[in-house]
Inverse folding.
């Protein structure tokens, strides 16, 4: 049967019917009063989601645009920065920072392990002349299924007093608690195709007052991603360039759905789905890749020892029309990843676990009793 594809990847994620209908509306003028009302509504809702009173700006672009904007609007060529690197997107931060001539010092951990907050503390405490201008990291490392302890790292950055905290929250915002103001985060980047339950195409950059002070001294080249004009026009419920009008329609509806569910309920749902996916995989004898207790609420990475992970993905797609994510770089063929963020319900997680279990049985690569994975996941979801 065609057209039954179920996305269980960390982006793009499934999109609710009402969001798709909103997206499919006829475009309107982006300088019209009607569109200004949408910008005003979505701005307030974005602040609610970020738990901030600071600016949250919308860019037509991917999550990487938000990451780049965070750097070029707050730093100067030659600035010393600490970059957390424990996966593909930590590596991207390092490459991006070096591309703009920043002096990068890496705080690393093996892929599958979380970043050590004490490593940041030691580096920051050793910075007697306060020359470190920023700490940059990924909250939920999508490539490995690891969640980093952003709250603890943020506390060390605040104690430093000078460094900004710039964070990729692309797969954590809308999946777990990211209270920007309470934790003292300065720049938070995210993308529409993740927890926002929307198609790809919008990125979001939240900027603290400290970040805006850094903007005034920043000398890195920028034009389309210069956040100054975005802030100026946002105050007038507008945009400096032609925005993705239909994606704003979708954003308005998606954020309304999120507000109806409520932040705590959203966070609880994602935590429950993480626990169910992890329990299901363990019950059928598949090891998890992320260190115990550090799995992301957005995605579960599975390392099927002695089994080609790509063969599992291909078979699940072929027989059940469920798309799982593969491993990246050195993890290709060694892990597959189950996305469970955004518009995902208990049924979706149960179905994915059942399909993986049935696939392994079809391949003759499972010793667990029939239904063991589904029973373990169901016990979590029904608990």
């Amino acid at each position: 049967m065609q057209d039954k594809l179920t996305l269980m990847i960390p982006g793009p994620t499934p999109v609710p019917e009402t969001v798709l209908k909103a997206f499919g509306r006829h475009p309107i003028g982006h300088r019209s009063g009607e569109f200004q009302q949408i910008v005003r509504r979505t701005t307030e809702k974005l602040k609610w989601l970020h738990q901030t009173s600071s600016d949250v700006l919308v860019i037509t672009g991917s999550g990487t645009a938000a990451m780049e904007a965070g750097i070029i609007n707050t730093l100067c060529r030659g600035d010393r920065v600490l970059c957390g690197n424990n996966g593909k997107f930590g590596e991207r931060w390092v490459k991006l920072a070096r591309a703009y001539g920043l002096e990068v010092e890496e705080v690393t951990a093996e892929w599958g392990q979380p970043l050590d907050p004490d490593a940041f503390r030691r580096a920051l405490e050793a910075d007697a002349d306060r020359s470190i201008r920023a700490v940059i990291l990924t909250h939920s490392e999508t490539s490995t299924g690891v969640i980093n302890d952003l709250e603890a790292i943020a506390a060390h950055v605040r104690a430093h007093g000078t460094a900004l905290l710039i964070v990729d929250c692309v797969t954590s915002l809308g999946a777990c608690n990211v209270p920007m103001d309470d934790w003292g985060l300065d720049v938070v980047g995210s993308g529409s195709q993740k927890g926002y339950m929307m198609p790809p195409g919008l990125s979001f950059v939240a900027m603290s007052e400290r970040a805006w002070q850094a903007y005034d001294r920043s000398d890195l080249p920028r034009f389309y991603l210069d956040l100054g004009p975005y802030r100026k026009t946002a105050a007038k419920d507008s945009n400096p360039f032609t925005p993705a009008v239909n994606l704003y329609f979708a954003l308005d509806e998606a954020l309304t759905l999120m507000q109806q569910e409520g932040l705590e309920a959203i966070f609880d749902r994602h935590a429950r789905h993480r626990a169910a996916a992890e329990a299901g995989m363990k019950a059928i004898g598949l090891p998890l890749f992320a260190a115990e207790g550090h799995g992301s609420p957005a995605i579960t990475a599975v390392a099927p020892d002695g089994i080609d992970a790509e063969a599992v993905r291909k078979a699940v797609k072929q027989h059940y029309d469920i798309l799982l994510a593969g491993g990246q770089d050195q993890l290709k063929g060694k892990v597959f990843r189950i996305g469970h963020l955004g518009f995902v319900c208990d049924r979706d997680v149960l179905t994915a676990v059942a399909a993986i279990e049935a696939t392994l049985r079809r391949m003759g690569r499972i010793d667990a009793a029939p239904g063991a994975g589904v029973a373990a996941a169901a016990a979590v979801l029904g608990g």
Notes: The chain has a mean pLDDT of 97. The first helix runs from residue 17 to 23. DSSP finds 14 helices and 13 strands in the chain.
